[in-house]
Structures are given as structure tokens and as C-alpha cells.
Design goal:
One of its GO terms (molecular function) is nicotinate-nucleotide adenylyltransferase activity. The chain has 10 helices and 6 strands. It has helices at residues 12-18, 54-66, 91-101, 112-116, 121-131, 143-148, 155-161, 173-177, 180-184, 218-225; strands at residues 41-47, 71-76, 107-110, 136-142, 164-167, 206-208. A 6-stranded parallel β-sheet has the order 3-2-1-4-5-6, sandwiched between helices. The longest helix is centred in the N-terminal third of the chain and has 13 residues, at 54-66. Bound molecules: adenosine-5'-triphosphate and nicotinate mononucleotide. Nicotinate mononucleotide binds next to strand 1 and helix 5.
């Protein structure tokens, strides 16, 4: 039985150990309620991961802590619709680069969009919310991507569908905070003191999560390899 999130066949022992947290594979509501009846909070960090680097791990871990997330799915995109295919490593290679950096149970590398057959974020979120009705999803993105958000397909539907956590990135923060998305959403920003409530809020809602920053990028790593 393959797991829709990890794509891996789990040995029985691992399934038993992981079942309290890991989504089960099939329809219905695969996410068990927590012992305290709180819905599972799941961060979605979509990305090309071409390749993954410590900047991804930093923002995923920081979001997990700041938002009390049970899991963060590092969703390796089948292909960012706005990025050229040329120079994009195969999905398996990009997934492997994420797996090499991840430790522990909270951060979960996944190619779930490929299995769901979605590429645009608006479709991914709608499908995930249908498939996992008991989860509370939060979309995590770096400040550079928040600036680009108005170029996404049906971006206003995206922001109406999922709370958004914007993570700081060196050189991108000022532009993000005065960009079109920030301006459109100016009445929907959570103040820093209320960030932990983000997953419980009804969208549109977003927050900028201050914290440590790392200037690393996949582009720099690819260039260094050449
Ligand atoms: N160093 C970083 N600091 C903060 N956010 C980051 C950082 N690197 C990537 N991100 C965020 O992680 C997500 C996935 O990024 P992606 O996989 O495209 O990495 P990248 O380094 O931006 O790649 P590239 O240089 O190829 O564009 C995006 O939301 C992006 O903003
Ligand atoms: O839905 C869109 O139109 C869209 C356009 C550009 C990027 N995205 C998503 O944004 C996430 C970050 O992409 P990237 O390539 O900057 O790491 C990833 O999950 C993409 O699928 C989504």
C-alpha cells in the first residue's frame, strides 16, 4: 500500500509507529484527529528544489515552530509553471536532494502534486482540502515568491483558500512588504504577536514571520557546480 504523501511503501512496523501522524493512503479523511481533538496543522512548502538547500530547511523548521505545525510537506513541484523546463533536474533527483537534508518526523518530502495530477497551486490546494478535510493547511513561501504571487494562476482564489506564511529572505523582504500582494491583502495581515493563530484563521489571511535568514539559493548552487 503506497502512501499518497511520501510515495513510499512503509513496512508494517513503520506504519504502526507513524500512524498517529502520517496520512493514510486512501479516500475519506485520512488524517486522524490529534489526542487533544485539535485538527492537524500542515504547512505546505511548495518548491522546485532544484536542488534543495539549507534555506528551505530553515524556513520549513521556522514555520513549524512559529505556527505549531504538526508537519511541513516539502512538495517537490512537477514543474513551476513560471519557470523554464530547461535546466530543471528530474523530479526524482530533486526529491532525493530534499530527502538528503531532512531529519526527524516533522518535515516530509513529497511529490504529491505529481500523484494528484496538479501543477497550479490553486488546483493543488483545492484537491488537498478535499482529500484531507480534517487538516488545517498553511501555504509557506519565501518573500521573493510573495512578490511574484500576482502572476500565479487565479492568485486571488489561492489567497481565499489557504492562510499564507511569508518567510523572510535576504534581499526580498522590503519589495514583498510593499508589493501588489501585500497591498491587496493589507487588511488581512496578522500582527507578529498573533502569528501562532495563522492556521486557525479563515482566509484570506497572511503573516510575515520574522526570524533568521539564509541567503543561499538553488541558482547559486547550480552555478557553483558548473
Ligand atoms: N534562502 C531562502 N530563504 C527564504 N526562503 C527561501 C530560500 N530559498 C528558497 N526559499 C523559498 O522556498 C520555496 C522554494 O524555493 P525554490 O525551490 O525555488 O528555491 P530557490 O533557491 O528560490 O530556487 P532558484 O534559485 O532556482 O529560483 C520558495 O517559496 C522560496 O521563496
Ligand atoms: O499556480 C501557479 O500559477 C504558480 C506559479 C508559480 C509558482 N507556483 C508554485 O510556487 C511554489 C514555489 O515555486 P518555486 O519554483 O519558486 O520554488 C511551487 O509550489 C510552485 O508550484 C505556482
Amino acid at each position: 500500500m503506497s502512501d499518497i504523501v511520501t510515495g513510499q511503501r512503509l513496512p508494517d512496523s513503520a506504519r504502526t509507529r507513524q500512524e498517529p501522524q502520517a496520512p493514510a493512503p486512501h479516500s475519506g479523511d485520512p488524517l486522524p484527529a490529534r489526542g487533544d481533538n485539535r485538527r492537524l496543522r500542515i504547512g505546505l512548502l511548495g518548491g522546485s528544489f532544484n536542488p534543495a538547500h539549507p534555506g528551505h530547511i530553515l524556513i520549513a523548521s521556522r514555520a513549524a515552530r512559529a505556527l505549531s505545525l504538526d508537519q511541513v510537506w516539502l512538495m517537490v513541484s512537477p514543474g513551476n509553471p513560471l519557470k523554464p523546463r530547461h535546466g530543471m533536474a528530474p523530479l526524482t533527483q530533486r526529491l532525493a536532494s530534499v530527502r538528503r537534508l531532512v531529519r526527524g518526523r516533522t518535515l516530509i518530502p513529497t511529490t504529491i502534486e505529481t500523484r494528484l495530477g496538479t501543477r497550479y497551486t490553486v488546483d493543488t490546494i483545492r484537491t488537498l482540502k478535499t482529500r484531507f478535510p480534517n487538516a488545517r493547511f498553511v501555504w509557506i513561501m519565501g518573500a521573493d515568491v510573495f512578490t511574484q504571487l500576482p502572476r500565479w494562476r487565479r492568485w486571488k482564489d489561492v489567497i481565499r483558500t489557504v492562510p499564507i506564511a511569508v518567510m523572510p529572505r535576504p534581499g526580498s523582504n522590503a519589495a514583498a512588504l510593499r508589493g501588489q500582494a501585500a497591498s491587496f491583502l493589507r487588511h488581512y495581515r496578522l500582527p507578529t504577536g498573533k502569528i501562532r493563530q495563522l492556521p486557525e484563521k479563515t482566509p484570506p489571511v497572511w503573516a510575515f514571520l520574522p526570524g533568521p535568514q539564509n541567503g543561499i539559493s538553488s541558482t547559486a548552487l547550480r552555478n557553483a557546480e558548473q
